[in-house]
TrEMBL record, chains A, B:
GO terms for biological process: photorespiration; tetrahydrofolate interconversion. Residues 157-305 form the Tetrahydrofolate dehydrogenase/cyclohydrolase NAD(P)-binding domain. The lineage of its organism: Eukaryota, Viridiplantae, Streptophyta, Embryophyta, Tracheophyta. GO terms for molecular function: methenyltetrahydrofolate cyclohydrolase activity; methylenetetrahydrofolate dehydrogenase (NADP+) activity. It holds the Pfam family THF_DHG_CYH_C. Catalyzes the oxidation of 5,10-methylenetetrahydrofolate to 5,10-methenyltetrahydrofolate and then the hydrolysis of 5,10-methenyltetrahydrofolate to 10-formyltetrahydrofolate. This is Bifunctional protein FolD 1, mitochondrial-like isoform X2. The keyword Metal-binding does not apply. One of its GO terms (cellular component) is cytosol. Homodimer. Keywords: Hydrolase, Multifunctional enzyme, NADP, One-carbon metabolism, Oxidoreductase, Photorespiration. The gene is LOC111478264. Pathway: One-carbon metabolism; tetrahydrofolate interconversion. Residues 21-136 form the Tetrahydrofolate dehydrogenase/cyclohydrolase catalytic domain. It catalyses: (6R)-5,10-methylene-5,6,7,8-tetrahydrofolate + NADP(+) = (6R)-5,10-methenyltetrahydrofolate + NADPH.
């Protein structure tokens, strides 16, 4: 019966190709604004924002992400430091690295690249990041303040903040709209659902215990796919005209690519782009904007630290 | 068309009277368990749990609630202290009252009765409640840990905890079910939606910006009404067989009642009880269980403080 309903809706909808939301272009625009602010700060007070990254182990994905983040910092004139620790390091070593960056006045943002090796207590480590430098926004106080009305977190997590930015810059109304977030990780799904609610969307979170994810997703005006499952979201999961943000970055083997693999999203792009009104590609969608938001959080933190407006 | 759909669903459903979820009986059962635990604690280590209440002003509702909470403490053998401050007191006076209770080793739980007068910064005051004594669970760290996966808040807010307790004790499966929470207050709607998600429900929060709240609510297997609007949820808002928890306690004038008013819920009980499979009455539903959860949180806190198991 659901299929009937869907089919009849399709009859009144002219299939077309979705607008591609160009995350790279949007990220460049944002980064260009950040770059001039950093220059203005340097000219005015002689300081620039500083970001510190703690990376444990040699995970290929983590290395790629960290390289992108540090490259973006350099481009924007943001100073960066990195502390790399071996895969078998102790919790104390990570906490010591944190302490050093806490005490370093030239550092305004600290991020611990996730995931951490199993033997480290991720919760304890993230709880130890100084609130004022928690540019990833993963400290439970920042998360609690994101969830609660009338409170303001010091930092919004970068991916959710990037998703909202993509929606706003694409002219998508959020308030009053039905949104479905697929996946409920602490770093994407959860804070994205909280942030969409702050923007007055009616949000449902779909997860592994959801019996009919396609049916619930099909009701949404805005779909954020962050399950980490390649091609999970098919064209039939989408309401015609929905706006789709694909947070997934799943490597699949492809010998024709430089590193022997390419990235695909959680959304079956071919199918979805024929049903959605707008969609982010992978790569080149949410990813670059997430990095831009990290720079923005670091800039905002430095402005706060130097009382620079 | 929506109405058509609803009507056709009704045709296949035999209307019946919903099971009344007896919150008073459930609360008594829980409180009786707490009472014996308190007795065991006293016999074993000579101490009992202690709850402190800070009440600002003379709001009639607040007075009623506080009276109920203190009465329940007495019944269970939990010691209680109350600090009453005038309506025009300063923030410092409230913070001082908090400090006294923080330092008092006989106090294991502190609650600041809400709402506070407008001139006081509620956020700042709730943020100042010592985490270990935050039996209302309103501190943003407790809220953040409630929201995040793999984290455990020290205390679950009493009303949401009571709602889950009511569902479980009524044999209602939560995992995989669609739940709608109507209202998104920091003290009920928000934490209830987070807690239902923790129990693997698929949760939507309906609020003032929702254009079609009745349509969204009608999809839910579990409805938690916490909007503070009398009789907001009509029978036509409910899916036949839904389970309805009514958190609303709205006073309406009624000269035939002892205090000149009686309490009604957010749900139109007459209509809803003909559509739902189970429903909580107002009064006698969520309210008593909320008070029982406060006692339970205070007991748990005391056990933690005395390392008593």
């Amino acid at each position: 019966m659901v299929h009937h309903h869907f089919a009849s809706t399709l009859l009144t909808y002219t299939p077309q190709t979705a607008t591609v939301i160009d995350g790279r272009a949007i990220a460049e625009e944002i980064t260009s604004g950040i770059t001039s602010e950093v220059r203005r700060m340097k000219n005015s007070i002689g300081n620039v924002p500083g970001l510190a990254v703690i990376m444990v182990g040699q995970g290929r994905d983590s290395q790629t992400y960290v390289r992108k983040k540090l490259g973006a910092c350099e481009e924007a004139g943001i100073q960066s430091k990195i502390s790399t620790l071996p895969d078998n390091c102790t919790e104390d070593q990570v906490l010591n690295a944190l302490s050093c960056f806490h005490e370093d006045p030239s550092i305004h943002g600290i991020l611990v690249q996730l995931p951490l090796p199993q033997h480290l207590d991720e919760g304890k480590i993230l709880n130890s990041v100084q609130l004022e430098k928690d540019v990833d926004g993963f400290h439970p106080i920042n998360m609690g303040n994101l969830a609660m009305w009338g409170r303001e977190p010091l930092f919004l997590p970068c991916t959710p903040k990037g998703c909202i930015e993509l929606l706003i810059r694409s002219g998508v109304e959020i308030s009053g709209k039905k949104a479905v977030v697929i996946g409920r990780s602490n770093i994407v799904g959860l804070p994205t659902s909280l942030l969409l609610q702050r923007h007055h969307a009616i949000v449902s979170v779909v997860h592994a215990f959801t019996r009919n994810p396609e049916q619930i997703t099909r009701e949404a005006d805005i779909v954020v796919a962050a399950a980490g499952v390649p091609n999970l979201v098919r064209g039939s999961w989408l309401k015609p005209g929905a706006v789709v943000l694909d947070v997934g970055t799943n490597p699949v083997k492809d010998p024709s690519c430089e590193y022997g693999h390419r990235l695909i999203g959680d959304v079956c792009y071919e199918e979805a782009s024929r049903v959605a009104s707008a969609i982010t590609p992978v790569p080149g969608g949410v990813g670059p904007v997430t990095v831009a938001m990290l720079l923005l959080n670091t800039l905002e933190s430095a402005k706060r630290a130097y009382n620079f407006t």
